[in-house]
Amino acid sequence: MLWMMLGIVLGLGKVIGVSALQGLDWPWALAPFGLAALQWAWSDRSGRTARQAMDREAARRAARQQQQREALGLGAGRRGRRD
């Protein structure tokens, strides 16, 4: 996401005419978009994206289970424990 934001800032700065970016060639201004594509491809290929999605789903499941335990009045007790 950082590469995308940098590419947007550089591209807009070049189009608008920010003096510091006027000397920058277009390939350099658009390079962050290519880097973002490479990073996303690596993330998908390495399985990082899938692991993050599974972690988010596991966290949602744990929160939902905890909410259901509290609604039933079981509190944060351990599984299989009888009082």
Oligomer status: single chain
Stretches where pLDDT falls below 50 for ≥5 residues? Answer: none
Mean pLDDT rating: 87
What's the gyration radius in Å? 24 Å
Measured distance between first and last alpha carbons: 50 Å
- Provide the β-strand percentage band: under 5%
Structure description:
The protein is mainly alpha-helical and about 80 residues long. The chain has 4 helices and no strands. The protein is elongated and about 65 Å long. The model has no long low-confidence stretch (mean pLDDT about 85).
Which secondary structure elements does this structure contain, and how are they paired or packed?
Elements: H1 2-16, H2 19-22, H3 26-46, H4 48-72
Quick description:
With 83 residues, the protein is mainly α. The protein has helices at 2-16, 19-22, 26-46, 48-72.
Supply the key terms.
single chain; 83 residues; mainly alpha; 4 helices; 78% helix; 0% strand; elongated
